[in-house]
Amino acid sequence: MAAKSWVRYGLVLAVPCVMVLSSCAGKTGGTDMAEQEMAEQLQEEEAARIAAEEEARKAEEARIEAERLAREKAEAKKKEEAKAAFLESHVPFDFDSFALNSGAMKILDAKVVWLRNNPAVKVTVEGHCDDRGTREYNLALGDRRARSVKQYLVDSGISADRIATISYGEERPLDPAKNEAAWSKNRRAQFVIR
Description:
Helices cover 68% and strands 11% of the residues. It has 4 helices and 4 strands, in the order αβαβαβαβ. The N and C termini lie far apart (127 Å). It is a lipid-anchor. InterPro entries: Bact_OuterMem_StrucFunc, OMP_bac, OmpA-like, OmpA-like_sf, Pal, Pal_lipo_C.
């Protein structure tokens, strides 16, 4: 009888202890899950922050690259316009003259600036005339016009090695008409990049 009492007494004590322990075990598992969820949420937030920073960095790099390309394009356009102006502005001469007038010197001053900004460029100065006078005379006059222009450039600091001259006399008119307006256009020194 005494042994059965002890067993009952032991069961009475053991059941509450098991209940308490199981309750505590349940609370610990819940806390671990909440902490794990919180850790996962923090990781997701950190990943989102890193992704946003990366996207912002890429957008900034794209903006900087676009600005660089726009600057280069504008610079290239500016250089092309300056080159076109250099080639398209001809040096005018009075009738039967190879002297440089003030208008010619103003044009040549702009060409000197362009040549200084483009030190690798070499040019040929072509001397042209209107069609009045003999072919031989106009070839000689065209040569004197081209040499006059070259001397002005050399006196302005451009190396003579960069400048060649040639005369076409009356052979390459800009305007074939037979009037003063056409003859005036044809009396010129013209630049070609070589």
